[in-house]
Each structure stands twice: as C-alpha cells, then as structure tokens.
Design goal:
two-stranded antiparallel ribbon, 19 helices
Length: about 450
C-alpha cells in the first residue's frame, strides 16, 4: 500500500520529478492545442487566455516564495501553510476583479459597442498595486542572491502592469484631485505639464488671483507698510495684473470698496436700522448705495412736437396707432424697455477628446433626462460639471458641427458617430451581463479568466 503521508508524497514527487514534469508538459500542450481549435471554431481571440495563463504562471512562482517563507521561516504547520501561503495572490486577484468591474460599469459605449468615454477602475486599482508591491517586497526579503531579489520584486510589478495595460487599452478617465496644491497642479502651474480642460480648476484659479490682488491693493493703499514692502506689493500687484481682465479688476475694485465700508456697515447704528423699511435708507447714509446709478434723461423724439398734445411732459398717444398689449416685444422695443439678459455662456473644452465627452454626456441627458445627482453618479462626474454640460447644451454650444470643426482644426478626420441612446448610457448598478458582454469583459480583464 503506498504511503499517503506528507513525507511519502514528497518523496514520491522527488523520485519521479522528471516523469511528472513530462506528463504535466504534455497535458499543457494538449490543452493549448484544444484551446486553439476551440478559438478557431468560435472565432474568439486567444489574447485574453494567453495573458491570463502567463499572469497565473507568474503568480504561481511568487506563491512558491511565500510557501518557503511560511514553512521554513515562520515554521507554520504544513496543513495550515497550504491555506495561507497564497493569501497575497488571492487578495490581488480579488482586487483586480473588482477594479475591472468598476471600469466596465463606468465606461460609456455607443450603439455599435465602441468606447465613447472610458471609465476608471476606482480605488481598487491602487489597492491592487499596493498588494503587488508588498508581496514582491516580502518574497524578495527571503531571497539569497541579488538576482533572485530583483526577480522576486519584478514579477508582481510586471503582472500588475500587464493587467492594467490590457484593462485600460481604450483609455482611462482622469480623476480630479481635491488638493489645491498637488504635484500635478504645481507642475501645470509652472508649465511642466499641459493642463486639462477643467472649468472648476480655472474658476478656482481666477478666484484666488482676484482675492490676492484685492489683498495687495488694500495693503498698498490702506495699511502702514515699510518702503521696501510697499514696493514689493506694488510690483507683485503689477505682475498679477498682467494676466487679469477688466472683469477681474472691477471685482478687485468692488472688494476693496466693500472692505473700506466694512466698519461702517457693521457699526451698531447700521445694525440697529436693519429691520426698518427700505425707505429709511435715505435717512441713514450708512445703508445707502455708495455708488447710486445716475438718473438718465431720455432725449425727446423729433416727432414729439407733431404727435399731439402733451400731458405731464409726455406726448399724448396717437389715436390712429393701435394700443399694443402688455409684454408685446414691439412695444418694449419702442418704449426702450430693458430686455432680459442672455443665458450665461459656459466655457466649453478646447480639446477634441474632452469636448466629445461633453457632447456624449449631453446627448445621453437628452435621451434619458434625470437629476444632476443621478447624472453625476451615472457618468462619474461632479454635479457642477453636469450643470455646466447642461447649460452648454441648452445654449447650443455642444453640437456635432462644432466637434467636426475642432477635429479638422486638430488635423483629424471627422468621423460620423453613432447616436447615443438611453440603452447605451451607464448605470450606477451592475446589470446581468450577457454572453457577448462576458466575452468583451474577458477581453479587457484577462485576470478574470484565471
């Protein structure tokens, strides 16, 4: 009767190692030939399976190093070591699977199945990278030679980079950081990197510049500064004014004027009269408008003398002219009424890729309207960006013609895009995937096939 103990099994494997390797190699070759025949019959690509096979072989080599550490260094029982020696590999495969699922869920496809707006793997991308790095460091710490240390460190990093490159072959959506001073934003400010079209970032930069200019102006004119500090403040204000616009300078003037009246507006007398009627503002100069608009006198028209008798300084209406109803545009134009302001023009992206993404989101909003909160979760954007996209689309700033013009200006050939329908928009929750979607997911996530 063969010895089925652990020592007996290891002795059998050691004695018949050559035969076992030859048999395993033949089985692997037969499996590969069968896979090739199956792929040709079903016309499915072999790249995901080949990539998954290579990744799992590399993971097995890394797991062997963890087995040596668990048995020889930690002195764990072999039965228990079987359960825990591959803990890093199991966690890595779990993290990559969750990241791939998040990437597919946040990717926008058109009706033909092409990627319109790539998604993002989410936080699991960084967790998978951390697991790969930690496993390489732990296994390399038990290596004997320097070459083995480099090999143990390189294997997990190579596996992670292969998986990440295959998953994001169609691109990866950039996520916006919430730090005002990050390495990327400092590099963009210093001219080392080309900044992306980010309306929120541009607005924050303009707001910071206006605030700084207002503080410098107030210090120069209303604070007791030394001679060198006053000269330094003036030079800095002049340099910041090189990139300022008329609207920014007007806002600086308004803030400085408001700061000069802050003490007056917060005095006990002004606060005591806050609850009084508005007509009392004439009796209290502190509550009056500092810059009242001057009254304008409309010049008399040439036909006023011949239009009939004048009553209270205004010509009487001509009985031959029919009276227009209230709110009529013709009457408003003749009487010089103020027309309502136009809608606010939103700063649209200047790059082809970002503009195409805005246009796709706007078409998805038209196909399936929803609240900004739902749209922000669906498209993985901020609610402010969704608001800007909605405003730009309602103003007619997001059109296929404008996209074609930008593509021609960038040296690209305009391509007719398939219309975005409600079925092609992403959903915040995962839906049951069909066989075709599983195959597409397997093409993007080779680690799932392991």
């Amino acid at each position: 009767m063969p010895d089925m103990s652990w020592d007996g099994i290891t002795a059998f494997v050691r004695d018949y190692a050559g035969a076992l390797l030859l048999g395993g190699g033949l089985l692997g070759l037969l499996a590969m030939l069968g896979l090739v025949v199956w792929a040709k019959r079903t016309k499915r690509p072999l790249r995901p399976f080949a990539l998954a096979l290579s990744m799992n072989l590399a993971l097995l080599l890394n797991a062997e190093g963890m087995w040596v550490i668990a048995v020889d260094e930690l002195r764990l029982p072999k039965v228990f070591a079987v359960l825990v020696f591959a803990v890093f590999e199991i966690c890595f495969l779990t993290a990559t699977s969750l990241a791939a699922e998040q990437y597919r869920r946040t990717t926008t496809y058109d009706a033909a199945g092409n990627v319109v707006s790539p998604g993002h793997p989410g936080p699991m991308l960084y967790i998978a990278a951390l697991i790969a790095g930690l496993s390489g460091v732990v296994v390399a710490s038990n290596a004997v030679t320097g070459t083995e240390k480099l090999l143990r460190l390189a294997l997990p990093c190579m596996i992670f980079l292969m998986w990440w490159a295959a998953l994001t072959a169609a691109g990866q959506r950039r996520t916006r950081g919430r730090f005002a001073y990050s390495p990327r934003r400092l590099a963009e400010r210093w001219g080392w990197l080309i900044p992306d079209d980010d309306p929120d970032l541009e607005r924050l930069a303009v707001e910071r510049r206006i605030t700084k200019m207002a503080m410098l102006a107030y210090r120069i004119h209303h604070e007791d500064l030394s001679a060198w500090r006053r000269r330094w403040s003036r030079k800095r204000l002049s340099r910041m004014g090189l990139n300022a616009t008329n609207d920014m300078l007007s806002e600086v003037q308004r803030r400085v004027a408001l700061a000069m009246r802050a003490e007056e507006l917060t005095s006990p007398e002004a606060i005591r009269h806050l609850g009084e009627p508005v007509t009392a503002a004439a009796d209290h100069p502190a509550l009056a408008d500092p810059d009242p608009a001057p009254a304008t006198v409309e010049p008399a028209r040439e036909d006023a003398a011949t239009s009939g008798p004048v009553t209270n300084g205004s010509p009487a209406p001509d009985p031959a002219t029919p009276e227009l109803p209230a709110g009529d545009p013709q009457r408003a134009a003749e009487e010089g009424a103020v027309t309502p302001p136009r809608q606010r023009q939103v700063a649209t992206p200047r790059t082809v890729g970002t503009y195409q993404q805005w246009l796709t989101v706007w078409q998805a909003i038209q196909a399936e309207p929803a609240e900004n909160r739902v749209l922000a979760e669906r498209h993985r954007m901020s609610e402010r960006t969704i608001t800007n996209i909605r405003s730009a689309g309602q103003n007619g700033q997001l059109t296929e013609e404008r996209l074609a013009e930008m593509q021609r200006a960038a040296g690209q050939e305009p391509v007719e895009r398939a219309p975005v329908t409600a079925a092609s928009t992403p959903r915040p929750t995962a839906e049951p995937e069909s066989t075709t979607v599983d195959q597409t997911a397997g093409d993007r996530d080779p680690a799932m096939a392991a």
